[in-house]
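Contributing: when you submit paired examples, paste them exactly as shown. First protein:
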Amino acid sequence: MTRIERPFDITRFEDEWLEADGFGGFASGTVGTLRTRRYHALLLTATRAPGGRMVLVNGVEAWVEANGQRFPLSMQRYVPDVIYPDLTTRLIEFDTSPWPTWRFELDAQRVLIAEVFVSKATRETVLRWRLEDIRTASEEVNALTLKVRPLLSGRDYHALHHENPAFNFNAQTSDDQSCVSWQPYGDVPVIHAATNGAYTHAPDWYRNFCYVREQERGLDFSEDLATPGVFGFDLAEGEAVMILTASVESTANASTPSQQQPASNAQLAQLTATHATERVTELASIEQQRRAALGTRLQRSADAYVVARNEGRTILAGFPWFTDWGRDTFIAMRGLLIASGRLDEAEAILLEWSGTLSEGMLPNRFPDYGDTPEYNSADASLWFIVAVHDYLATHHASAATTQRLQQAVEAILAGYTKGTRFGIQASADDGLLNAGVPGVQLTWMDAKVGDWVVTPRIGKPVEVQALWINALRIAAIWNPQWQASADRALQAFHERFIDPSTQALFDNIDVDHVKGTVDRAIRPNQIFAVGGLPFPLLEGAATRAVLDHVEAHLLTPLGLRTLAPSDPAYCGHYGGPAARTRRRLPSRHGLAMAARSIRRSVVAGSRHCNRSPQRSQNALSRPAGRASRSRGARPSIGNRRRRCTPRTGRHPVSGLVARRVAAH
């Protein structure tokens, strides 16, 4: 539990929370209720799970009225940097267990508790408000009225929304005015709000919200939001509840068997305040039991990344803006699912991804809109093979599943041996794996700004060779024909990758496909040759030399740097607008890999450095009215934002552990 200390500390108020829905959508925000990112919202829905994300309900303006006084329960930041209303004297406590919960001090006698959680059974966001002890102030409770104004947009989650005449404020309500539906634009899902209060239609605009995290990144950062009306709740009658959901047809399996669909417009009129109250009680009970069964806080946080894709499962690369990426999925599932005993989900992921195999490659990523995947990764397919090895070692798979996965593994190796996209092919002279063409990033160091590939690594990158040799040895377990290729590549690795001046490993050889050239940059990639994979490539003194070298130059209390500080390209801090930070990208300082103990050569996983996606200049200056991708033109929205493709970097809150994120 977080106790809000006084004097007020605005940086503590901007710590972030996250609630995932298991389909790629989520609710998120800050401790102080300020929205600091365009991605902060109460109802952010994946219309094509886990992609096609849309922000529907950005937040609420909430307050309590009592005896002519107004007690705010939400705080907003407006351009240029005006925070109103002030919660610094009201918010006294915040906790994330079992879900985000706030305690507000209304006055010396009364405390109000507010809660938010997302149901993984139904993809609904639940908001709940109640007095801490209604029995201690029965007379005064009668005078307490909670008011809640939903703030809506109906936009792509990368975009920002602005006041426009096309916004549809029309509301369809239930007979008792407790449940309401809106559809801001014709091509966005219908938003449903089921409450135990009463709705009053009062359309208005809230203008010039300021998102400081976007401003820091040099992006557009102001937004206007529509509010169609206000809900009123009598706190004397007990807790106030609101259920937010969207009419999205699910094409993927729910994370639990008890999936329920939101009410249709035709059913809405029959809903009542009693239904909403009972439903919140049911959803809270189901969700609390589900979370308790997950075990530790870390396990609950990790569960946020496991989501549905089609009829299978997948793992998100990070919040708030990444969907699923092949490399990240196969690395993460070894710990999130296989080592944790969630083997049915691990199998579902491997089978789902195996169906996307093309020319011996698995996708690097799927676009937010559209079904054509991108295959620009040399190592994603190899990480798949490692994950298959770990999964099959549990003996959980049926004979049919085992055969299907083994066939996928051999299809990858055959494609890589023959040659596939982007110059990926086993070298005829030494059996190591060539990879790379100009203008395309293929390894985990995949930053790209416009046409500039920051760390091309064309040639034979060291960790790709470790993965390649491991993949060959894994396939040889059931098909000995791959053993000779593995032995040949391993011998070449020993002969060509050891730097005689340090006894550590080169980061890349045959750079730009020029035979005999080497890259001596000290990076953490060489650690995979000695740990973290099923079959280490080095032994004894050779392993010790790599570990000592990495520890001496890259180890920090939190993980490994991506470049040695002694390198002229090293920069210890990366951040800010693209125009100012482009020159800093080659240093890529960050927590490259989470190493539990490199002294024991145990590499727990791989994390990307804290880099932020940058937009192209065209996107930054796109005039209002320009449509985004294949979505219909919506001249009212303006400033629609696309993430650069391929991706330009890893977000600071991606991965399992982030200083400012608490996920469940």
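Second protein:
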Amino acid sequence: FRIKLNHPHYHSSSSSSSSSSSSPLKIDSVSVYPEAIIETSENLFTDEEIKFFFHVQVIYD
């Protein structure tokens, strides 16, 4: 039994400017969450837990 948990990746950017600044200040932030791969010799999860994993974008291999 193998399960791969993927966390969402998102990119966001924002910009702001002030009247005393000649150029706008641009802030780019990227957050990337790690993956978790769980391998076991048997299924340790209940059906309810597996449904939850699918809900949070889990990929089975």
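If you have annotations for the second protein, write them as plain sentences, like these:
Residues 10-21 have pLDDT under 50 and may be disordered.
The radius of gyration is 20 Å.
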